[in-house]
Amino acid sequence: MPKRHDTLKNPEQELRIFRVRALLAVLVVVVLTGLLTGRLAYLQIVQHDLYSTRSEKNRVRVEPLPPNRGLIYDRNGVLLAENRPTYNLTLVRERVDDLDETLALLVELLDLPEDDIEAFNVRSRQRQRPYQPALLMSDLSEDQIARLAVNRHRLPGVEVEAQLLRYYPDAEMMAHSLGYVGRINAEEMQTLDAGRYAGTHFIGKTGIERFYETELHGQAGLRKVETNARGRVLRELGRTDPVPGANLTLTLDKSMQMLAYELLDDRRGSIVAIVPGTGEILAMVSTPGFDSNQFVTGIDVASYRGLQENIDLPLFNRAIRGHYPPGSTIKPFLALAGLVEGVVTPDSTINDPGFYQLPNDSRRYRNWLRWGHGRVDMERSLAVSNNTYYYTLAHDLGIDNLHEQMTNFGFGQRVAHDVQGESTGLMPSRDWKRARFNQPWYPGETLSVGIGQGYWQVTPLQLASATATLANRGHWVKPRLALAIGDEPLALDLPETLPDIQLDNDNWWDRVFSGMEKVLSGREGTARRTGVGLEYRMGGKSGTAQVFSLGQDQRYNAAELEERLRDHALFMAFAPIDDPQIAVSVIVENAGGGSTHAAHLARAMTDAWILRDDAPDAEEVKEALVDDTARVEGN
Amino acid sequence: MSSWQTLSRPLRRYPVRPPDSGIARRKSIWERIHLDPWLLGLLLLLMGGGLLVLYSASGQRIDTVIAQAIRFGVAIVVMVVIAQLSPSTFLRWAPFAYGLGLAMLLAVEIAGDVGMGAKRWLEIPGVIRFQPSEMMKLAVPLMVAAYLNRCQLPPRFKHIFVCAVIIGLPVVLTAIQPDLGTSLLVASAAVIVVLLAGLSWRLIGLIGALIAAGLPVLWMNMHNYQRQRVLTFLDPDSDPLGAGWNIIQSTTAIGSGGLWGKGWLEGTQSQLEFLPERHTDFIIAVLGEEFGLVGMLVLLSLYVMIVGRGLWLATSAQDTFGRLFAGSIILTFFIYVFVNVGMVSGILPVVGVPLPLVSYGGTSSVTLLAGFGILMSIHAHRRLLPR
Fold it and tell me: Which end of chain B, N or C, is more open, meaning fewer C-beta atoms within 10 Å of its C-beta?
């Protein structure tokens, strides 16, 4: 040891100093311990309730239990929309060591196309709590599931989750009527009741799925679970079960729907069939269709572009949104309007020289038969589809009466109860023309409207609905798609149904029906070829609509242009006349004359519904048409 | 008091067997094995209780508890062995221990192992891996006590300056590792020696003022994560999922415990892993949650009793070196307790200080019990004087 200073040290004093300092230290220890005790007492006594609540909130998590979406059946209980288990790829970021590496490995394993990889990368980085699974990919294939399972050890945090997904077994022919569900988007999220939709990822986007969204969705349940800090569920503390969505039974008949779809045979067109007495829509088809299943999990960009740019507009629901000039199919309604307004009686006749001239006007409005039909009464005017009779009738009615009466038949407005996205069509009037073009109504325009041309535009659904009302002798029943929601049948009388159409003499209905029957069964009937071999009394009316515009600005090649300038073929019909069970409207775009190209489709529909198993199927109808070389021209 | 300063053999100032005195007195078994039964009893009680809490805090893993018990065993052996050494041995070793520690700190700076973002570890591969700064917790106060033992007390300015150099070197080396927590603990252990030696109040005031003035400089030189800790301490809710998480969860654990606690193994904050570092630095939150305020007060009382007994032993030491070193050891022990409990309960910023003899960890238990061994040695090797 180095040299010492002992001689200078004063042990007594040093001990005294130490004792004083040690005493001070005790004081400090007591004060600081008191401080800690105070703090602990504050936390554990004063603030106990606050921290108890916090600790409960920490450990107890409320998890939503999404309800199962209601199933959709046709009128005979055939499943049209079901929930199918599928497998999704999810990623819990917290448990992933190296996100980039994991993603690269996944891309390799799943053999993803470039487009998907990008979406994949975006989804994997979306802001989410690190312990919550982020959805990377839906609807894995068996092969992909297997490859993931084999490489499971290389992919911590990556999991395959089962989920119920909407599936439409007959998507192509049902797509337009059923609609489809899709992922809830940000916009929809704003307006949705967060509680009801907790845990739900899908919502009805179009059609029945959208209209009956509330009923189909059901009510979310919840469960309280105890979780650890990483969010893993340890046990369930309590639960409220979800209320599953109601199953929906539709008025649609799958076999009728399929028949209509096959009859249209990939042409552009639409068939709507309604039970007149009940308003039940048996079939509502728009072709071409599309695979709505693609939209459930999100359609890929290329496929969507393909559908959108398709010249045949497969995404366009022609049955409810297609605007067509009705042509001669509206002649029975015009005749009825004349009867209601007292302008004609069933026995009133005109002499048809082959044209009609307005007073003080040299212009000739022509019948389709150049030399005229001669003496024409109401029934014959329908059977031969005489134009001159209806020029006269329309002129005598005037546009105001005509508009009012046609409105009573549902033209120019939405007619159905539960058809999502239905268009109003267009029933022109003086006011409409003033508002639209700021022009007065010219008498010549009334004549055009009289034969279903001009501004008048109807949807196939409107035409079928008007036909059903006519078949009902003027009694309105609102067309509907739902037969029953859950066990609750839809009421026959629905609000906002149009008033019934009254005729002074009830027998006049029979006169009009007789005229319509002669279309198919009369010697001069425009669709007499179609009426051959009818086993019941059927009334109908053909129509041929001139295509006056190309519609959207689309790129056509010359061959297509020519095809697309041909007339639309229309037909409306109901049967049997004595006890109407079905009313049909048929529209085939650019097919030519209605009596030749649409009537037999209507007949096939009525046959199928009335004769059931004895009716010819779609193939037989098509073959019969090919054999039928005789062309009966008519407007 | 007195005569031993004049003994002819300076290196044997603490004879293993004191010369016979006039009054015959049989030595108890405790005196013979140089242990203090009170202190030993309190420490064992603390360690036993600590193992109980550790079982719960480790997620009921008995192997963790066994590992800790084995470390306690080793630490107790170290304590008993050290207690047999004469205080003069410590006095003699002081410069060597201090020099060695300083050299190792330099070695860490040059060739240290990086762990958790800081160079703290020194490793001889396959042999041993330890933190030199841990050893400095004892070596620095030892050196200061040894130095002041040679000076006339109360210390004068010159002595203070030398002490400042002795303290400053290792503290700065530790601080740049960076390990601010340990460097402050090392500094406080040594400063306590100086305070106990009778540093004048005027100088205390002056140094206090200097430190206050130096705080901004310290702030400028802190690492980002260190600043973050201070900021988070001031407002834990500013970053509830990040740095504030620890404090929010630990205060929630303690607060939700209430007066009686949720019961052993029943604490949801602890058992469901909301509490971070629950078996190391934040273990007292487990105690607070499961045993409530009552359990916390029992633990604090235990610590206060240990500190009280330790101070008593220090006061009864017979020379200045013994008193200063013993006093420093026991008061530093209290500082650990205060800093840890203060941190977990949210009245101090988060610094990596474990709860003495309760937190899971080997090095700190050994250092602590080595300290208590020294304390017992200083006490047991008194010369029995005539009353």
Answer: C
pLDDT tens string A420-444: 999 999 999 999 999 999 999 999 9
Assembly ipTM: 0.88
User: Looking at the annotation, which residues of A are catalytic?
Assistant: 328
The set of residues, in sequence order, having a beta carbon less than 8 Å from that of A188 and lying 6+ positions away, is A203
Task: Tell whether the model's pLDDT for residue B119 goes beyond 70.
Answer: no
E strands within A171-232?
A: 181-183, 202-204, 218-219, 221-227
Q: Identify the CATH homologous superfamily for domain A254-294+316-627.
A: DD-peptidase/beta-lactamase superfamily (3.40.710.10)
Judged by a CB distance cut-off of 8 A, whether residue A16 touches chain B is no
A533-548 per-position pLDDT tens digit: 999 999 999 999 887 5
Nearest-angstrom CA–CA distance, B290 and B49:
13
A77 touches chain B (CB under 8 A): no
pTM of the model: 0.68
Q: Do A58 and B334 touch (CB under 8 A)?
A: no
| CA–CA min distance B175, chain A (Å) | 26
CA angle A11, A12, A16 (to 5 degrees): 115
Domain range annotation of chain A: 14-46, 63-250, 254-294+316-627
User: Chain B interface, mutation test: which of A14, A129, A226, most B Cβ atoms within 10 Å?
Assistant: A14
Contacts of A131 in chain B (CB under 8 A): none
Given the DSSP bridges, would you call strands A134-137 and A218-219 parallel, antiparallel or unpaired? Answer: unpaired
Question: Residue B268: which of A44, A45, A55 has the nearest Cβ?
Answer: A55
Q: Which residues of A touch B289 (CB under 8 A)?
A: 55
Interface of A with B in 226-265 (CB under 8 A): 226-230, 234
The pair of three-digit structure tokens given for residue A244, joined into one six-digit string: 């599953």
Strand order in the sheet with A269-275: A280-287, A269-275, A582-588, A568-575, A539-545
All residues of chain A having their beta carbon less than 8 Å from the beta carbon of residue B258 are 44-45, 48, 52
> Which residues partner with A135 through β-bridges?
A90
